[in-house]
Amino acid sequence: MLVYLRLFKESFTFAINALRNNKLRTFLSLLGVTIGIFSIIAVLAAVDSLDRNIKEQLSGLDKNTMYLTKYSFGPTSVPRWQRDNFPQVEHDDYEFIEGSVDDIEAIAYVIFGGSENLKYEGKTVSGVNVTPVSNGIYDIENLKIESGRFYNESESNSGAPVIVLGSSTATNLFDNDNPIGKTIRAYGRKLKVIGVLKKVGGGIGGDSPDERAYVPANFVRRFNNGGANGLPGAVVIKPKKDVDFDAFESVLKQKYRVYRGLKADEPDNFFINKLSGLTDAVDSIIGFMNGVGWTISAFSLLVGGFGIANIMFVSVKERTNLIGIQKSLGAKNRFILFQFLFEAIVLAFIGGIVGLILVWITTTVLSNFTGDFEFVLSAGNMMLGFALSTAIGLISGIVPAISASKLDPVEAIRTGM
């Protein structure tokens, strides 16, 4: 055992000295591995960070929450022309479902509007995602109030001119002033600020409650027409936790089909989207992105591996005379093998470490510039980087190392002279 430990130590020392004596060659070999490890770990870190941020945003929502609307949140076999002819989901649909479907914990009607400009005493915040929605959304999305309150059922039904601001929206519009009770303008109309939400962090695609504002849907319905040419809407439904969700969805679909007058042989002209389906879609997209990242980065790793193999063959050629002398003095084949194999592994390992350091620096800088979206270099990805770099060195160095260990000492000395 001690013989092998001494063999490993001597081979490792010899490899380090060889790398130190050929600095330019070492640098060029390191560059290929560094770029390969950097590219693949950077891609995996970015995808993992995106996945984590999306899952954190969805974690506050019940995965069985349903969105009844004319749109599908995922792939569907229904042709585009047919979907375009589906009727809009309107406030009357919301009232029907609220009054006729049992086992609903919370329900809301939401209008998918665009961004609006919010104004207060000469200051304007542009592009705010103002969400017209009934008060039930407060329980569905598990919103938390920092100051003030959310609008109640009476204000929601009457379409009161009130607004609840997200944390960042309030800060951008009022700085450090207390916004509660202040009057702002949106949609060209006056709205009273009655609440500010607690800060929650990044959201899907940058859409966080911090960047939003909420107004009663019936307030917007006063001046925005519904119907086929109006703003699209949806009924958001959160079933009670102790119900059979499949049975609940079946009852909901059956009653809504009757409400819309659909015959038994007619297909649905609406979609019931569940957040669990959205989570599955996100997992599928993340998996695809990981696959693409691996494919692209594999080429970089391949180039790095070929670079190391090429350098090792050159190194064997240059040190043929030295190999012959070592063998003539009694060096075993395995000593020569480990000597060159360790050189390749150390070269690749150092390149991997440099690549990981560059990824860490990149993720740290990007996290500082992207606000709530945090790029994370996980321990798993770091271990993967170390494993990949070691494997590249092992695979790239094994053939040159074997060829060096099999050299005949007499021929090696003669060739090197």
Automatic annotation (TrEMBL):
Indicate the transmembrane segments per the record: 27-47, 292-314, 335-362, 382-404
Where does it localize? Answer: Cell membrane
- Residue span, MacB-like periplasmic core domain: 26-254
Q: Which UniProt keywords apply?
A: Cell membrane, Membrane, Transmembrane, Transmembrane helix
Q: Topology with regard to the membrane?
A: Multi-pass membrane protein
Q: What is its main location?
A: membrane
Record-annotated ABC3 transporter permease C-terminal domain positions: 295-409
The similarity annotation says: Belongs to the ABC-4 integral membrane protein family.
The identity of this protein, by name, is ABC transporter permease
